[in-house]
Amino acid sequence: MTTRKDKQPPRQALSRExxxxxxxxxxxxxxxxALTMRRLAEVLEVYPATIxxxxxxxxxLIARVCQRVFEGIELPDADSVPWxxxxxxxxxxxxxxxxxxxxxxxxxxxTIQISASSLTMADRLLAVLEDAGFTGEQLVMVYNTVLGGxxxxxxxxxxxxxxxxxSDWVSEYQHAxxxxxxxxxxxxxxxxxxxxxxxxxxxxxxxxxxPMESSFDFAMRTMIAGLERMxxx
Length: 233
Prior knowledge:
It is a single chain. By secondary structure, the protein is mainly α. Among the domains are: 13-71, Orthogonal Bundle (Arc Repressor Mutant, subunit A); 74-160, no CATH class. The chain is 64% helix and 0% strand. Helix 1 packs across helix 4, helix 2 (37-44) packs across helix 3 and helix 5 runs antiparallel to helix 12. The N and C termini lie far apart (93 Å).
């Protein structure tokens, strides 16, 4: 006697949100370079055409993923903190959010952000700076300084290591800095144990494994203090 196989429940329709979520998870695990429409389709068990239908081409999909990450940056309350603290909180919240998705950090900062969330951040920052007393051309310069300082740092801190999975270059680089730089690079040689793997251009580990939080905080506070002095001059 044969039995009829149970019917499989109908697959629920795939949504754009599911595509974006799956793309972000794939990037988090394997990096942006691993994201292809075919691979994502395999993960979601659909045809590649379905991915294109919901999210556009690969560049458009990455832009949508970046927007999703941007949406997770909670803006500070401008009514409860002074403008200097508002900017500092924005900086740390942005770094914390992108730090959860370091594989996307560089693409995030190299992609022009055009979304409701990015426009809201832009509007709030402009309003905070206006209330602080910045106007005219100075307002534009300060605005660009703040966002460039925050997101430029984040991109540099979480940049990929030069040769993933190859440890030989690390020991060679360390030796070159510590031993070979005495004559040609005297300042690096003198300060090797202070700056080694802690300073830009002198690191062999990304901020993904060796965070630079204290340096980031110092940089943001220094930037804000400089803007405050310029305003009061």
